[in-house]
Each structure stands twice: as C-alpha cells, then as structure tokens.
Specification:
Growth Hormone, Chain: A
C-alpha cells in the first residue's frame, strides 16, 4: 500500500512542529530567569555580578547567531534546530546546579548560544513553513514562543517558595 501525499496536511504538521519548537524555546527562556533569586545567595554574588552573568548569556547568543547561518547552510535549518532543541533543554538545570561561579558563567554562555542558534534555525524553518502554507504564520509562531515563556516562568514560583 502506498501513502498518498497531502501537501496541506504536511504543511499543517510542519506548522505545529515549528510552533512546538517556538514554545520550547520560549519555555526555556522563561525558565532560567526565576533561578536568579536562588543563584545570588547560593554563589554569594551581587546583583552586579549577576548582571555580568546575564551579559555572558547575551554574548553566547550573539556569537551563536553569527555562526548559525553557516551551520544552516551546511546542515539545513531542520537539522540545526533539532540538535539545538535537544541540547538546549538540559541547560537550565545545569545553571541551577552549577557548583561554582566559573561553571555558572560557562552555563550562561552555553544557554545563550543554544537559544541563539535555535532561534535563527527555527525562524528559518518558520519561513519555509509559511511558504508551504501559502500564508503568513510568523505571528502565531512567536505567539507560541510567548506562551512558552509564560509557562516556563510560571512553573517556578512553587519551587522558589521551597527555598
């Protein structure tokens, strides 16, 4: 028995897959920020030091975004987004569990790099899906990112009360 290709169905499946990736990226972004109140006393750092750590996240993101295009050209946006979606998610627990300030800084750079590379790849993928759909969908993809951010940030208030 041969499968019949249904381009509209395939495009809709691709739309939901990309929406899920945007959601996961947003959730991860939202999940790390509630860690800040726990990191300050754990590592005995000041708000200024935390600001520098957040800068490391930005440096990692910008550096990765600058190289993401080359990765996408070589491997394709689909492959790049898959890899970075997998390596991104465990980065938030690594931030929470980092035993030293140096490892925390490294985790912040990695989080930024993984978020940045995934961001470029999933947006490139989203453009391809929009073309397949034949209509604009980018705002809904970014809506899923925002929804993921709310979910990621909203999961932590209960944990913060335990500390």
């Amino acid at each position: 028995m041969t499968a019949t290709l249904h381009p509209a169905t395939d495009a809709n499946r691709a739309r939901w897959a990309i929406s899920t990736l945007f959601f996961v990226n947003g959730m991860t972004t939202g999940a790390w920020a509630p860690q800040i109140p726990l990191l300050l006393p754990r590592h005995q750092i000041t708000e200024s030091t935390m600001g520098i750590l957040i800068l490391f996240l930005g440096i990692g993101a910008v550096g990765a975004m600058m190289t993401a295009g080359r990765l996408i050209s070589h491997f394709g946006s689909r492959a790049v987004v898959r890899v970075f979606a997998i390596v991104l998610v465990p980065t938030v627990p690594l931030i929470a569990l980092a035993p030293s300030l140096l490892l925390l800084a490294l985790c912040m750079v990695l989080l930024g790099a993984f978020l940045g590379c995934m961001d470029v790849a999933m947006n490139a993928n989203a453009v391809a899906v929009e073309r397949r759909l034949g209509r604009a969908a980018m705002s809904s993809f970014h809506g899923f990112w925002s929804l993921g951010g709310f979910v990621g940030a909203g999961k932590h208030p209960r944990r913060l009360r335990w500390h």
